[in-house]
Amino acid sequence: MHFTQLLQDRFHEALKPLTDAPESFASMIRPTTDPKHGDYQANLAMPLSKKLGKPPRDVAAAVVEAVKLDDVCETPEIAGPGFINLKVKDSFLAEQIRGLLGDARCGVGKTDSTQPIVIDFSSPNVAKPMHVGHIRSTVIGDSLARTLKFLGYHTITDNHLGDWGTQFGIIIYGYKHFGDPEVVAKDPVPELSKLYRRVNGLIEYRKAVAWVPDIEQAIETARADAADLESQTPDPADAKAAKKLKKSIASANRRVESLQSELESLRSKIAGVEADPTSAADAAAHPDIDKAVLQETAKLHQGDAENLELWKKFLPFCKDEINRVYDRLDVQFDHTLGESFYHSMLGGVVEQLESKGLASTSDGAVCVFLDGFDAPMIVRKQDGAFLYATTDLATLRYRLDEFNPAEILYVVDSRQSEHFDKIFAVAGEFGLAEVKLVHVNFGTVLGEDGKPMKTRSGSLIGLESLLDDAVDRARTVVCDPQRLENFDPPMEVAEQEMVAETVGIGAIKFADLGHHRTSDYRFNLDKMVALEGNTSTYVQYSYARTQAILQRAEKAESDVIAMIDTHGLSFSHVAERTLALSLLRFEEALLAVHKDYAPNALVDYLLDTARVYSRFNDSCHVLKAESEAIQATRLALVALTGRVLQLGLRLLGVGVVPRM
Ligand code: ARG
């Protein structure tokens, strides 16, 4: 049930005679944080009074007079300047909680919309190892898919693998020049990974070498700019101008500094390669490696037999590699239609754009010129190669024909915003506009230093080693010998491992999902796995506490239902009510996830419920309750809390353990 919505609907009705914008005022109802102000508070009287030119308390009184709430709330109170405080009736609350018992959906309704929602997520470029940057799309997309599916939507998940790009040119080149067919056949995944790193390292080296003079030039220009500014003397009478000049000088100096640090990192990359005899020899022997790799990719796309053969041979290994990560993360897809799947459709897309007059040739490249963008969208390069955008247009058309979706969500890094803006703009003109297209964008994972997370050698941190680290950290926290002493029967090693894995992997996901997707966040494993704080460990631990109580009481939910049937459900402590109200808000949290495609709404809800549950535990005895009737209600709350926490975590892709 969406209780806030119910209240808003009731206020909406009551506000109709008072204003022509009842909806916007009705939306000003929120759960309170302090029970002193009731359970919900409406602060609509103050803004409405301005519109009506009447004292806010009078307006509040008129609204209270008109609103019909007596079946769900006590008589509303008007507080302070005109706040309307609402207290949910105990009888109503008890009835709602009784309704949740035995309900596997925990009170969450189902949509009757049947048109599919396609969710494009994870979509890594394979052939190179997955790194920390792949966490976000995978975890956000998976939790959106789980949540929407639970809400009753027909979801179709599609992993739009980058399985056709330059990275294959890289491993094909690597295999041809450095590969040992026997080693690759025997141990393909690490070997291909090694080849990828070796060739990519050389490409990066080439790029760095080529960039150094440009950066040096840029530093000189920036220094000259700074010096020029410093030599200016501002008019002493004009304080504003002086301040402005100071600011410009500081910003010019900052630019010099940032270019210098870029230069330093390029130089250290170059020095790294040159200091190592093998890579130095490689670099000398493969001076045009960047161009050669592009040629290998182009040959693959043109259907060159040898390269196509190699691609077919390598692709399954690359997929094995990422599937290992997906298994560990418990992420599945309905489809994995990679870029290669669309290759044969790309020519048709370009032709269609041309025949509809949307594309034209400029400098030999086929471009779509779009209003509101500086640069056109190139769909075919001069050399005949198609682009990322061409593939996305083909993919869009295929999805519309094949799935007839109502929505397509693209869970992709914010840095691709312009790409998607253009795709969506072209889609409109392409006659593909009936579908709602959403770029579910997200920010960057940063290291402790606030910069994009890298290893010491400057490469991106591999996802698997990160997961291992998280599980190790989790083990030290939850399997600490002192904690383990408390378990009876003792926790065997296999169970400890299961707990560490569930807690460690859950921690990474939960921490990621806990930040609003559009913000960047700093990656800190210690904080993520801690037992206290805004962590999944805390929520998982709260869940385990519910299970411990039920086990000690020797009651399953069906037994609790029988107790309630005998004693009824009623509240004897404020902490019970607060917990009950929180349990009632589950659906609201899930709908908020859908509304903004933002799983952090569910994370916040679960943390809040776990905290409220902890307060309930501190103040209400369950096993030693004052009477059997009181115990019945408390056990019902414990059982429901356990299920809501478990289900909520599951919708985030996070597991639970029965004890920890
Ligand atoms: N493979 C792309 C990358 O790693 C992401 C693909 C996202 N999906 C899409 N339909 N463009 O940047």
Automatic annotation (TrEMBL):
It holds the Pfam family DALR_1. One of its GO terms (biological process) is arginyl-tRNA aminoacylation. Residues 539-660 form the DALR anticodon binding domain. InterPro entries: aa-tRNA-synth_I_CS, Arg-tRNA-ligase, Arg-tRNA-synth_N, Arg-tRNA-synth_N_sf, ArgRS_core, DALR_anticod-bd, Rossmann-like_a/b/a_fold, tRNAsynth_Ia_anticodon-bd. SMART domains: Arg_tRNA_synt_N (SM01016), DALR_1 (SM00836). Residues 5-88 form the Arginyl tRNA synthetase N-terminal domain. It comes from the Bacteria. GO terms for molecular function: arginine-tRNA ligase activity; ATP binding. GO terms for cellular component: cytoplasm. Its EC number is 6.1.1.19. Keywords: Aminoacyl-tRNA synthetase, ATP-binding, Coiled coil, Cytoplasm, Ligase, Nucleotide-binding, Protein biosynthesis. The keyword ATP-binding applies. Signal peptide: none annotated. Residues 212-276 form a coiled coil. Gene3D superfamilies: Arginyl tRNA synthetase N-terminal domain (3.30.1360.70), HUPs (3.40.50.620), Isoleucyl-tRNA Synthetase, Domain 1 (1.10.730.10). Its main location: cytoplasm. PROSITE patterns: AA_TRNA_LIGASE_I. It catalyses: tRNA(Arg) + L-arginine + ATP = L-arginyl-tRNA(Arg) + AMP + diphosphate. A motif ('HIGH' region) lies at residues 124-134. It is found in: Cytoplasm. HAMAP family: Arg_tRNA_synth. NCBIfam families: argS (TIGR00456). Monomer. Belongs to the class-I aminoacyl-tRNA synthetase family. This is Arginine--tRNA ligase. It comes from Rubripirellula obstinata.
